[in-house]
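Can you give me the bound-state structure? Components:
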Amino acid sequence: MNIVVVGLSHKTAPVEIREKVAFPPTEMATPLRQMLALPAVAEGVIVSTCNRVELYAVSRTPEAAVIELKRFLADFHQIAADKLSEHLYDLEGKDAIRHVLRVAASLDSMIIGEPQILGQIKTAYGYASEYKTLGLILNRFLHKAFSVAKRVRTETAIASNAVSVSFAAVELARKIFDDLEDKTVMLIGAGEMCELAARHFVNNGVKKVLVTNRTFARAEKLAAEFNGGIAVSFENFREQLHRVDIVLSSTGAPDYVLSAKRVKEIIKLRRHKPMFLIDIAVPRDIDPLANKFDGIYLYDVDDLQGVVQANLKGREKEAAKAEAIIDGEIEQFQRWLATLEVKPTIVALRRQLDQVRKTELEKTFASLNTLGDKERKAIEAMTAAIVNKILHHPTNILKQSQNGGGGDQYVDAVRTLFDLPESTDAQQDEAEPSVDN
Amino acid sequence: MGTMNLLFNLTTLIYLLASICYLLAMLGKRPQAARTGRWVLLAGVVLHAACFAVRHSTTGGAPVTSLHESLSFFAWCLVLLFLLFDLRFRLSVMGAFAGPLAFLLMLGSAVSPDVVVQLNPMLRSWLFPVHIVFAFFGNAAFALAFGAGVMYLVQDRMLKSKRFTRIYQLLPSLGTLDKVNYTCLSVGFPLMTLGIISGAFWANTAWGAYWSWDPKETWALITWFLYAALLHGRLTIGWRGRKAAIFSIIGFLFLLFTFLGVNLLLDGQHTFEAFAQL
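Here's the bound-state model for the whole set.
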């Protein structure tokens, strides 16, 4: 059995292509069933996000599965197959396993470490399990992917630093103030990024939000969206500033809304309590000279972008650690996958029972030392016949299951019931009896 | 003497180990090392206390009659106070300052001649250890204020110049550092004041005068005024942040001179030789 991946992502396809092959989340039943109906596909999952569309399948004949899956993707979305194929990648075996684990751990994301992708794969898993297109292998494999993603998240710092401008502002504030709970934020103007940053601040403990806008009604409307938000008229907001610890400014004003002189007065009124000024407006709202004053920390859009860039670089470093974790997990999963092969399982099962037979036989012969050679041979033949009879039907079922669906379940069940060793390495099995001697 | 030396050397070694842990946590890529450092340091401070106990049982005096003893006792005060602060503020980065400083103090102590000075009988009084404990813990608090001050200036520089290095990631927020500065000050200043007052009473019983303007007393008074000014500034006119940090650094330089410079460079009744003579 082999894992197969066919798909495209932001790395191989522009958005015009991605949007054409995306699967709408409300209608997953049809594509999933069609995918499972493909002759070479035993199990299937469809992951569809705005950055990637990928088909994960389990197949005994991976080459055939790749061709079928590619055709399915083109046919389903009514795109010419040759036009689509230049954007598609296909992977099988170890490469496919690595790919899925990397995707789940957010190493293949546009922004490394972003947390959404794991949820999206979980959703895809949900649909597949709802429409019963999952079997033993994909089930186990996706759970593995989830646990690997979790390991990467906890054991590396891949997601620890902000990679959005609005969140970078919160992170900086945490390096200026020791506690955000008792701090006050003021929004000047109603830029979307400022609003988002203010929301981040509120989520991180800030209780008091002041909003000002040239149009007072807009200020009131926005203030109402924050618990404890207060609207301040644009004419008077400067008088309130000394009570504010964090300023988020994004007006459309052509000139500075806050002059350096004004900032100096404010910091004096505050008795030099630190103040964090975030100016997201272009052209800028706050005179950059204000950064010179003691206790004033003024950041514009480029500065915040700089924080984001530095953090992204940090994430890339952490990604190397994540790759090492994934390498280890791939091996482990492949070992399990190998145990699902029918032939080695039958061999192992036979060896296991034969081992039991021989051990018991030796015990019996040791206590019945009056037996002659003839009797011994007869008893031995009889025990061998019993084992063969017992194994006959299960062996047949296992052999048949190879062709039909659900075979892996039988193999897995046999392995569990008879406690067969995971290793299918013949040499190691050969060596085992010598341990008993 | 053997046990004492063993304990002393072991303590020094442990402070070195703790310093390595803290430095690894700060400069290397193992933030967990700071937690190890905390436990190692805790072991060090207990062992160090045992070292003083053994010393007391053999010499029977307060452990500050020679430079050797003073430096070692100062290291102990510093480490103990740091651990208390770490408990309160989770300031493991400061360990990269307190640990090595304690280790250096121990080294300084090790190279200074370990003479057990029999205190002149005139100087024996319960006021002596009281004076010493107040003064030394006060000094340790100011040393930590100095450390927090340096860290504040570095972090302030980072935030102003928008350079986001590893140091920026590791250092605590300006708010926390300023709070530490204030706490150190408000702990250190009363201790120093009590140290000076108890010293004056002790001087009165020993020399018959509360204050005799010997160099150490003069310099201690200057330092005291400096810290008094800073505390006053903080409480009334909003001297905080950078200004407070710079002030704490200058104050500590004065303190260092009072503590070491006076003893080594100037004469007076606080020199260790004077303890024996007189």
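A couple of observations. The first helix of chain A runs from residue 15 to 21. Residues 32 and 133 of chain A are 7 Å apart (CA to CA).
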